[in-house]
Amino acid sequence: QVQLVESGGGLVQPGGSLRLSCAASGHTFSSLIMGWFRQAPGKEREFVAVISRSSIGTNYADSAKGRFTISRDNAKNTVHLQMNNLKPEDTAIYYCASSAGIGLRSRTVDFNSWGQGTQVTVSS
User: Fold this and answer.
1) 97-112 confidence digits (pLDDT tens)
2) Rg (CA), the chain
């Protein structure tokens, strides 16, 4: 079982930046596809970004393209989400997730393990 712990959330003004981190343990990290999802109040959890095992491949939700960057460090068992030019609509709980499957997945059902989430609030 993979254990995932997110950090780096907080309150930021519109246009600001945050860098989320997720530390993984309990599994060979380099064998996992890693993703970020988010859930705003009253809404379903939605895909944000995903990265392949070797970092060669990435995929982003349209809302994240051009503003967010997902990266990973297999030596440190961590995955990051750099978020720039944040908007109020980015306010949500952000979750790190892992998948032992194949391919750059974007559905919640394709991910096996989840962190507890970190709150991101974008407000002036």
Assistant:
1) 999 988 889 999 999 9
2) 13
